């Protein structure tokens, strides 16, 4: 294992030539941070057994990275974080099962050709062109937007074996026409949606997605709104909605939002297999926390909304958990 990771250290040129021949040593894991990779030796035998490669704050251009990846014949996990010189990333590898690309701000496109890829995660501050040349067994997809960027659902692709989808939006998501195309999300079993603002009427996106993903059993929402007094919202729920197979519903960061209360009632009406509703009043990510006193007041108000408006209307067949 090689680990070089100090984000604030002075950037240096990492000596790849030292890994041409490791004399029998089978290097499995490499984590490099705050360095640069400029030239690749012709025969990088030392990377032949590498299973995991993680690069954070590393200056490396497209051609050099492709050459390194081609030398990692056994590579299964590739993580790229804040590699600002990457422009057009192409990952073609027969053994790769996990790919993560995070905050590579100059990136314009990602091309994936990986027959065994099961998990792909992308986080960025702008839209990139994602082309799936070959990803037939992809099971988990995470698309996380930052800096006011919203991912259109048509960038996600069509994967018959996709089971888990996680989306993060920085603005209210609209109902995309892509949700009306049959077969797009029919294999999904688990969905997590995170919106870094209040949902309001855009909450209708959730049942539209459930309508398109009719086999979903677990739904999670992460909320980052503020304490607001109850307000009646006229939400246009989807027409011709069919009963869901949902059995677990979770809300994180609940602040007593009226749209969330209405969504719970909607799901109770259309989810005969629903067994558990779990509501967390505290937020999971500290960077979105307000002052401690303000957050305590928000959580207390949220619990009051649950006890007053939700609990009396939840049937005995559904277990309501408040944390």
TrEMBL record:
Residues 7-322 form the At1g61320/AtMIF1 LRR domain. Gene3D superfamilies: Ribonuclease Inhibitor (3.80.10.10). Transmembrane segments: none annotated. It comes from the Eukaryota. It holds the Pfam family LRR_At1g61320_AtMIF1. InterPro entries: At1g61320/At1g61330-like, LRR_At1g61320_AtMIF1, LRR_dom_sf. This is At1g61320/AtMIF1 LRR domain-containing protein. The lineage of its organism: Eukaryota, Viridiplantae, Streptophyta, Embryophyta, Tracheophyta.
